[in-house]
Amino acid sequence: MTVADINAVVQAFRDGVANQDAEALSRIYHEDARFLPPNMAPFEGRPAIRQAFQQLLDMGVRSVDLEPIDVREAADLTIEYGRYTLGLETGDGQTVSDVGKYLVVHETRDGTTRISYDIFNSNSPPPG
Q1: CB within 8 Å of 103: residues ≥ 6 apart
Q2: Closest CA to 103 of 81, 86, 85, 70
């Protein structure tokens, strides 16, 4: 994958969250992908990933900023490590940020590159 390809995926995430569009977010993933968010069970397959994103959006996720730090390629796989900042709207309308790290495995199949594995977690301890 090129830097432009990675940037296109980053922009698709930003747009999907900004538009509150779980379906668009799920289309970034292969049909049999695995999405591994913190404090939740794994979500396997695009329909489950769409459901996971809908849950996150319903919980108040309003923006995402992704910063790829290291991208490594091996045959049909591209591994991306980076930092994220999530903008979260609380129940009282306040906005808070969550900063953390992520690891994504992009895979090219039949000429199409999508995400196969995605895991992220916060740099902050869980709320007490």
Answers
A1: 79, 80, 81, 117, 118, 119, 120
A2: 81
* Secondary structure (3-state) at 5: helix
d(CA 31, CA 127): 33
Q: In this structure, are residues 14 and 64 in contact, taking their beta carbons and an 8 Å threshold?
A: yes
Tell me the one-letter amino acid at 113.
T
Count of residues making up the chain: 128
Token pair belonging to 65: 């900023």
C-alpha dihedral sign at 50, 56, 61, 63: negative
Q: What is the pLDDT of residues 25-66, one digit of tens each?
A: 999 999 999 999 998 899 999 999 999 999 999 999 999 999
Torsion angles phi and psi, residue 93, rounded to 5:
85, 0
